[in-house]
Amino acid sequence: MSVYKEVKKVNVIVLVLNLLVAFGKIIVGYAINSMSMEADGFHSLTDASSNIIGLIGVYLSYKPQDKEHPYGHRKIETLVTLVIAIMLFAICYEIFSAVMGRFNRPTTVEASIFGFLVMLITISINMFVAAFERHKGKELGSDFLISDSMHTSSDIYVSLSVILSLVFTRLDIQWADIIVALFIGLMIGRAGYKILCSGIKVLLDTAVIDADEIAALVEQQEGIKSCHKIRTRGKQDDISVDLHVLVDKDMHIYDAHKLADAIEAKLREEYSGITDVTIHIEPS
Asked: What are the GO MF terms of this UniProt record (predicted)?
């Protein structure tokens, strides 16, 4: 099965689970007047929306290279992760707005046993989804799945805080619901910030592999006097490497070409994510 089909399969599974979790929290949260549970539910609904965006983005990113896009379309997936980050910031703002509204219109939360049960079930589902996405993301080299697993992991802590607020509410500490809703907003904002930083690094072509590390590896090759002007960019599963190597000025062009092939093979063996290597041969 192709990488795209595997990523798509994971996305569909996670989408269905996120929808179940989201509507469960929203319906029960509304029934018991728990703002924190409702906020957590809308957060999970945002997860589902990001899965839909992910399906579109991953489909486009795995299209083959063409004349207009000689390096492929993989950065589309990175752009999709930035959309997810923006969605997280938007839901963070909405939660803070709702908290301000609750200060003006206080309501009583009914912390029922059913509410606790729903939260425990959704936490179990989120734990499975986060581990599943993280494992598949690393296995398939998918930025989207890895970033979405980080997003889902934040849901677990958020849901635990909702349970804590229900406990305090049963002790007649009503303000706990507001405090936890604020905490949820901060957690969502934090997840968005981490995803945003990760995506920006790829778009700005931040170095992926340490240049000194590559130089040390290349200079072990017989016939290489030195290695310099090393540049790397891309993602962990789609790394492009450019470098210059210094060889004996009397080396035949055929031997120099074979040497460049040997260097490329060594780099690809050491770093499985390398997809493109450009080597410039210089005479000493």
From this structure: cadmium ion transmembrane transporter activity; ferrous iron transmembrane transporter activity; zinc efflux antiporter activity
Judge whether 45 and 22 are in contact, CB under 8 Å.
yes
Phi, psi of 245 (to 5 degrees): -125, 145
* Spatial CA neighbour of 193 closest among 160, 233, 147: 147
Establish how many alpha carbons lie within 13 A of residue 191's alpha carbon, considering only the half-sphere containing its beta carbon. 29
Is the pTM of the predicted complex or chain greater than 0.90? no
192-247 per-position pLDDT tens digit:
888 888 888 888 888 889 999 999 999 998 888 899 999 999 887 788 999 999 99
Could you please state the CATH topology (level 3) that the domain comprising 211-283 is classified under.
Answer: Alpha-Beta Plaits (3.30.70)
Instruction: Tell me the fold of 3-203.
Output: Alpha-lytic protease prodomain-like (1.20.1510)
